[in-house]
Design brief:
The chain is mainly beta. A ten-stranded antiparallel beta sheet has the order 4-3-2-1-5-9-8-7-6-10, with no helix packed on it. The chain starts with 6 loop residues before the first strand and ends in a 14-residue tail after the last helix. 7% of the residues lie in helices and 39% in strands. The model has no long low-confidence stretch (mean pLDDT 81).
Amino acid sequence: MASSTVKRVVVYRFDRQPLEGVINPSAYLLDNHLELITLQGNLQMVPYVEIKAVCFVSEAGEADLFTEHNLFERRPKVPGLWTRFTFRDGDRLDGILSHNLLDWPERGYSITPAGSGAKRQRVFVPRTAVVSTELRGVVGGSLMGLAQREKKGAVSAGGQLSMFDS
């Protein structure tokens, strides 16, 4: 049975005002567009080429994703891949991607942004909005995971996963 939960979002668009509304988190990413219902009750179908970012929020506030705390001031403590995205209009945004590459959706990236809180919990960045990405660092997880795999015997003496041994 499908969940009836909806999430509140702010959709940032290139050269346009942000849209605020609600989405169904399990079905909002369609083939060519994103579907959301605005706070006025209108169904909007926004093409991916117009979308800069989709910010999941829990409370209303000023749309400031690209104006305040968009870059980490120091190395983040949240485990994941610290990544900097550069958008088509030159804006930049830092975020933490999952270590698991299978968690990355085909249509874009789901990140934990810098300065995350009630006004910005998660951000979806469509691939069409990004001109470059930069890996700034790997935070947590990788060395700890390697130590656990070595303990279980899944990693060979050379540090390579045993499935790659010939």
